[in-house]
Fold this protein.
Amino acid sequence: MSTTERDTEAELVESPFPNPTLDDDNPPYWEYCKQGELRYQYCTDCERFWFPVGPVCPRCLGTNFEWRPVSLDGELLAVIVYHRKFFPNAELPYAVGQVWLKEGIRLSAQLDTEGIPAEELARVGAHVKVRFERRTSGFSVPKLVLAEGGD
Ligand SMILES: [Zn+2]
């Protein structure tokens, strides 16, 4: 992925959705997002990514890891379209998609629906790209967009 494909220069957004909650383990994850990268903990003992972020590998219980970058491309697994407001300033409807990144990580994030007919949203298996919504709060949060030309 070239830097020109990253969305780090996008304008700041006043999001109606909650900001991430920082804990002891996840600040690096959000820092990489600010740089336009998705990085996940990669266990250097059993050589696998783990997610969600946490202090130990859920597979081998090891604590040795590196933050390794993953692709910003995935395959759409599922979509949920919300027609009810759980957040007062959210515009309805909005969609949340779940994608498989090729590294085997399942990521859920808001799916950009602008200009996309509802029937297009449900295309399981479609090629989806991860972009970052730069918020006025200082967080950059992953967001999904359907790739041009479908899969
Ligand atoms: Zn492990």
Observations:
- Residues 1-5 have pLDDT under 50 and may be disordered.
